[in-house]
UniProtKB/TrEMBL annotation:
GO terms for cellular component: cytoplasm. The keyword Hydrolase applies. GO terms for biological process: proteolysis. This is N4-(Beta-N-acetylglucosaminyl)-L-asparaginase. It comes from the Bacteria. SUPFAM superfamilies: N-terminal nucleophile aminohydrolases (Ntn hydrolases). Substrate binds at R178, V179, G180, D181, T201, G202, L203, G204. It comes from Clostridium amylolyticum. The keyword Protease applies.
Amino acid sequence: MYGMIATWRMAFEGVTKGTEILKHGGHAGDAIEIAIKEVENFEFYKSVGYGGLPNEDMEVELDAAYMDGTTFDIGAVAAIKDFANPISIARRLSKEEVNNLLVGEGAEKFAHKEGFERKNMLTERAKIHYHNRVKEVKELQLKPYSGHDTVGMVSLDVNENMIAGTSTSGLFMKKKGRVGDSPICGSGFYVDSKVGGASATGLGEDLIKGCISYEIVRLMKEGHHPQEACEIAVNNLDEELKIRRGKAGDLSLIAMNNKGEWGVSTNIEGFSFVVANQFQEPTVYLTKNINGKCIHEEASQEWLYNYMKTRTAPLVRK
């Protein structure tokens, strides 16, 4: 059995490439890396990699993580600037005995020493997004942070290796140096090849409060199907945050177990994800939470067309 699951429609092309590796007996780590790099390199996906949304100083700071569920090797970078593929840097860090999570200048120094590609990740399109948002915040009293999505993935190969990976530019107009859940083991991602893996997207500050990716894997280990595990974890954290704090931020989780079974849960409208395995070509789904149960529907061709049309449409500075 092999399979991949990923957050958001933006992962479709990457999952398609990753699945080809898995089809031919390749390693889950290679599938994850090539799949996430595909998202990182596409400038129109404004929340990951090249073209990612900048912080309040109009700098693109990126977070990424990689975890091997067979060896428990982990590598992560946070607030790294001017390097093309943070997922690859994170994977390289996972091979180190220590110093597995590096941030800011330290992450950049390591990446340079290891020969990773330097690249200005701030695009003209991202600058327009930034300037338009500054104006909107002043005139309409909007929150600056909307518009952030993490690409998170879990993969399973035919040799029963499982890998989890994440990559994001984080909150739009965040404070310099801010780090969310994505590079934090147990919150943004977790995987155990003997059980399964999970990855998160949403408001990192709230996802961290529940160590939610680990919680989903723990529930799967107890015997819950991935769908049950995702729903229990998301519903519980959503409820607990509302009880304790009066509100809950966006929480969306994907999971896959070591049998290739998968699950997804969210507390928002319009969450999309991608699934592929030996029985199914890469497919985009939309999900919605109805009274604690998530209903998944395959995205229509019209929805898929409008998705890409919206994201690649020309931008004009307001």
